[in-house]
Amino acid sequence: MAGLYAGQSLTGEQGIFAPLLKHFLEAALEGEMAAHLQEGKSVDTPSANRRNGKARKQVKSLSGEFELQTPRDREGSFEPQVVGKRQVIITEGLEEKVIALYAMGNSFRDISRHIQELYGMALSATQLSEITDKVVPAMNQWRGRPLDSLYCFLYLDCMHYKVRSEGKVVARAVYNVLGINQEGRKELIGMYVAESEGAKFWLSVLSELKTRGVEDVLIACVDGLKGFPEAIETVFPAAQVQLCVIHQIRNTLRYVVEKDKKAFMADLKPVYQALNQEEGYLNLLALEEKWGKKYPVAVQSWFNNWEHLATFFAYDAHIRRAIYTTNAIEGLHRQVRKVTKTKGAFTSDAALLKLIYLVVMNVEKKWTMPLPNWALTFSQLFIMFEERIRPHLRV
User: Fold this and answer.
1) Which PANTHER family does this UniProt record tie to the protein (predicted)?
2) Are 324 and 245 in contact (CB under 8 A)?
């Protein structure tokens, strides 16, 4: 009351509610300890467990900062629920706000400033890191969760970042696998980190997906990484592989001089916009006849990859639009990069995965609807792959 009359703040640093909160929490902890010791007792085998003094720690709350005394037992089996063993921040909803700010790409310095302005509470980078680390168990459980037995489409692509490791900055590749399930909804089913992108690691990624329950994939959409189609067919031999046409066009134009690009593209469009595979191949032969001598590498890459570039010709417009490019997963990557672009280098692989996981969780909230015209798309897939789809149909 004296503090109120003196005009002291109720909350914030040195708030006058701090002693009251301290008294309440310590009384609750004493009650928890008494209940814990009572539960350990029995008529036949009395417990030797006893109280063993108190531990002290500085905790922060909206009511101010104070020293909290937590009772201990001899066996060390007491796990307080009111205030956890390593909990030093007592504010309902604050941890969720910190994690939300972190998921938006804010640095610990920015988050600390926001919390100071909103709540009048100073949090160190270590404390903020401990709060955000609480999502790691949920992330690990999500990364290893069981998967559906069948995915109609898989989109596989990589993102590249810098991470600090042993005093130096190194490159990291984050492997992402986006699946389209039987309901036509998107689902990120795999997220892995490695030193670089390669077909060998993709093989291990696909093998793990299989151990998590994926038995069959109808169509896998990938970029032009060497050995990628072979890696997919090793794990899912029945899967059809579609190389991204957009990636192929970009790689082709790297070998064409600027003044010829417009004319070259005019002759290239009939190749991938043809009505069927036969017409597309004839147009490719015409492209070779006109440009093959001047740009042999650009044209020959289409012949080398034609088997997997032409997969989409077997389907109508609805399915073609869904599989001719890896734009579905690249769209996800664009949203992730909006958040991660401010990070020069992550402190660890775990910090990298943690932030991407939080961004993906926010993005997945928007994935409530199936792909456009999915009923028609799935009907056509069922006609083509009935024997493979029927065993996995959900009743």
Assistant:
1) MUTATOR FAMILY TRANSPOSASE, TRANSPOSASE FOR INSERTION SEQUENCE ELEMENT IS1081
2) yes
pLDDT score, position 89: 67
Between strands 168-180 and 240-243, the pairing is unpaired
Give the pLDDT of residue 132. Answer: 79
First CA to last CA distance, the chain: 66
Q: What distances in angstroms separate CA 217 from CA 149, 158, 175, 188, 389, one per listed residue?
A: 9, 19, 18, 15, 10
- In the block, which residue shows the tokens 């291990």? 204
In whole angstroms, what is the distance from residue 305 CA to residue 271 CA? 13
Q: What residue ranges in the chain does DSSP mark as E strands?
A: 51-61, 64-73, 89-90, 150-165, 168-180, 186-194, 216-222, 240-243
Q: For residue 360, what pLDDT is reported?
A: 93
Give residue 125's pLDDT: 77
**Roughly what angle, to the nearest 10 degrees, separates helices 277-291 and 296-309?**
170
What is the structure's pLDDT at 382?
A: 93
Q: Which residues of the chain have pLDDT under 70?
A: 1-18, 20-21, 23-24, 28, 40, 42-47, 61-64, 82, 88-95, 116-122, 395
Q: What angle do CA 350, 355, 358 make, to 5 degrees?
A: 120
34-48: string of b/e by CB count within 10 Å (b at 16+)?
eebbeebeeeeeeee
Q: How many alpha carbons fall within 13 Å on the CB side of residue 274?
A: 22
Indicate the DSSP class of residue 224: -
252 vs 302: CA distance, rounded Å: 8
Nearest partner of 26 among 73, 76, 82, judged by Cα: 82
